[in-house]
Amino acid sequence: MILDLPTIMAFTVAFAVFLYVVMDGFDLGLAILFPFARPGDRDTMVNTIAPVWDGNETWLVLGGGAVLAGFPQAYAILLPALYVPIIAMLLGLVFRGVAFEFRFRSQRRQHWWDRGFVLGSVVASFMQGVALGTVLQGVTVVDGAYGGGWCDWLTPFSVLCGISVCIAYMLLGACWLIAKTEGHLRDDAYAWARKLVFATLAAIVAVSLATPFLLGQYWQRWFEWPTIAVTGLVPLLVALVWLALLRTLAARRDRWPFFLSLALFALCFAGLGVSIYPDIVPGTLTIWEAAAPEKSQVFFMTGVILLIPVILVYTGYSYWVFRGKVGADAGYH
């Protein structure tokens, strides 16, 4: 691996996207679990994420900005290919945000806003998975620009990825509720998590089995010697973390399921990196071919070096201040 500016920029993009996925993932998953929760528990569920959910989306902005600033050619190719999923995702996030606020203020129509909260979260989660699947399966590039159609993103593989992301977010949301709630809501969260841990493993296996057949380079990176000596560790570690998660759920250790589910996400993200790196548009552009001029990269990285520690500090402080269990009597203002 060459540690130069394009590589550092690529890891910055990956870092921001990963933090968005895990930090916004649990509150999206929590919302998708709303229909399975008792009506009296829904306020408590929302109160567990109320202090932190806005800040979680900071990383989405940083990830998108990093792609634009660091890899403008890749941005120009991928954005048209993902117009529909991205617009649908953003509309889902906006609708979800409005419903989040209005459900507390409109008691007579709260059930409608709850449905809006669920719908917006499902759409946002599903479209994030669809976007991932679209990038993984490759996009049509003609003369350095996107040459595909309006609906090329809609394939069985992208739909599989969309469903898988929804399931994985639900597991993350259930594990978050285990860590943050008490009483029968925590018991319900344990019941959901015990089912979702199997569904998540099935989703990981399904996507993992399909991915190597999308592009020849994926098969080479995963199964040819000598890289298989390293890549073979990823499924092994996934299996070990999954078993540990299953055991902690059985033992009802409130804190560990959430951290182990984060570890599961991290390993899946590492597997995604193995498949794609060093490409940024799989099968078409590497990070060096798509990189912005060096001065632009230096300018952006200067801002990143100054701002990321600040974001991490205030994010960590927010989670620290609002640590601990959230009871039914907690209020959102």
Question: How would you explain this protein's 3D organization?
Answer:
The termini are far apart. A hairpin with a 3-residue loop joins strand 3 and strand 4. With about 325 residues, the protein is mostly helical. It is globular. The protein is built from 15 helices and 4 strands. Helix 1 packs antiparallel against helix 4, helix 1 runs parallel beside helix 15 and helix 6 packs antiparallel against helix 7. The strands form 2 sheets. A two-stranded antiparallel ribbon has the order 1-2. A two-stranded antiparallel ribbon has the order 3-4.
Tally of helical runs: 15
Strand proportion, as a percent range, falls in under 5%
Strand adjacency order, main sheet: 1-2
First-to-last CA distance: 49 Å
What are the SSEs and their pairings?
Elements: H1 5-32, H2 42-49, H3 53-56, H4 58-70, H5 72-81, H6 83-105, H7 110-137, E1 141-142, E2 145-146, H8 156-180, H9 183-210, H10 216-223, H11 228-231, H12 233-251, H13 256-276, E3 279-281, E4 285-286, H14 287-290, H15 294-321
Antiparallel strand pairs: 1-2, 3-4
Helix pairs in contact: 1-4, 1-7, 1-8, 1-15, 4-5, 4-15, 6-7, 7-8, 8-9, 8-13, 9-12, 12-13
Annotation keywords:
333 residues, mainly alpha, Formate dehydrogenase/DMSO reductase fold, two-stranded antiparallel ribbon, 15 helices, 75% helix, globular
